[in-house]
TrEMBL record:
Belongs to the peroxidase family. Ascorbate peroxidase subfamily. It comes from Aegilops tauschii subsp. strangulata (Goatgrass). Ca(2+) 2 binds at residues 127, 171, 174, 179. SUPFAM superfamilies: Heme-dependent peroxidases. Substrate binds at residue 96. Keywords: Calcium, Disulfide bond, Heme, Hydrogen peroxide, Iron, Metal-binding, Oxidoreductase, Peroxidase, Pyrrolidone carboxylic acid. It catalyses: 2 a phenolic donor + H2O2 = 2 a phenolic radical donor + 2 H2O. PROSITE patterns: PEROXIDASE_1, PEROXIDASE_4. The lineage of its organism: Eukaryota, Viridiplantae, Streptophyta, Embryophyta, Tracheophyta. One of its GO terms (biological process) is response to oxidative stress. Binds 2 calcium ions per subunit. Binds 1 heme b (iron(II)-protoporphyrin IX) group per subunit. This is Plant heme peroxidase family profile domain-containing protein.
Length: 251
């Protein structure tokens, strides 16, 4: 996720003057695929120099990725600019971790003006992708609000000790399909992360999760609304911005 607004800051490599976000706890070894953005940027620069920001490329790639996996399509407002710096400490402080409670998730998204509904819809992105064992180990061995056969299944590739970086799909039904199965999983207590299952654990988001689990179109509509809101977060005024020529470093 972005932390200082959508300014491509996550794409910056560490430099001698700042430590970037790539190696902040919530992103280290997790945020990846930077070479894909580099390849796109190289082609865009060849066609039209210094015009399309890395932040816009990232927002478009997110939209296209969702759509290619069967999810909704939407138009992405463009014109974002790229930051000249990144902050590891702020990325660590502003991104919720996998052990977060519902209250923490609501507060941290709220800090970015994203409502609980936005947060619950955006979490549906966990209908695709993988998580490392170290982020769900405690859940599959020690939690009780988990389907027993699902816990056993996941324990198969996530041992009690070792195997920290072993991957498991978030969505046990359709791992690489962008659909509403994430919410069906939550209703069946098959959420992978503690933070996922928090959305359906008897709290304020239960009814909405239930609704998304029954209505793919409601989920798609709310996901798009929330992506537009998150994608519209701007860097705070006064920050210096530019169209970076290489997404990995300031010009
Ligand atoms: C609600 C708070 C959230 C928490 C606590 C959280 C946490 C995590 C964690 C721990 C992973 C696994 C990383 C790894 O194992 O390396 C992950 C993966 C992922 N997250 Fe989230 N996330 C949250 C919200 C979001 C949002 C809002 C989106 C996008 C809209 C998102 C999209 C993804 C995707 C696509 C992956 C899979 C990446 C891959 O397979 O390479 N997450 N998340």
């Amino acid at each position: 996720m972005y932390r200082q607004g959508c300014d491509g800051s996550i794409l910056l490599d560490d430099t001698s003057t700042f430590i970037g976000e790539k190696n902040a706890g919530p992103n280290a070894n997790s945020a990846r695929g930077f070479e894909v953005i580099d390849a796109i940027k190289t082609q865009v620069e060849a066609a039209c120099r210094a015009t399309v920001s890395c932040a816009d490329i990232l927002a478009l790639a997110a939209r296209d990725g969702v759509n290619l996996l069967g999810g909704p399509n939407w138009s992405v407002p463009l014109g974002r600019k790229d930051s000249r710096t990144a902050s590891q400490s702020a990325a660590s402080a502003n991104l919720p971790g996998p052990d977060s409670s519902l209250a923490t998730l609501i507060t941290m998204f709220g800090n970015k003006n994203l409502s609980p509904r936005d947060m619950t819809a955006l979490s549906g992105a966990h209908t695709i992708g993988r998580s490392q064992c170290q982020f769900f180990r405690n859940r599959i061995y020690n939690e009780t609000n988990i389907n027993a056969s699902f816990a056993t299944l996941r324990q198969g590739t996530c041992p009690r000790s070792g195997g920290n970086t072993n991957l498991a799909p978030f969505d046990v039904q359709t791992a690489d399909g962008f659909d509403n199965a994430y919410y069906q999983n939550l209703v069946g207590q098959r959420g992978l992360l503690h933070s996922d299952q928090e959305l359906f654990n008897g709290g304020s988001q239960n009814a909405l999760v239930q609704q998304y689990s029954n209505s793919p179109s409601q989920f798609s509509a709310d996901f798009v609304t929330a992506m537009l809101k998150m994608g519209g977060l701007l860097p705070s005024s006064g920050t210096q911005t530019e169209v970076r020529l290489n997404c990995r470093r300031p010009n």
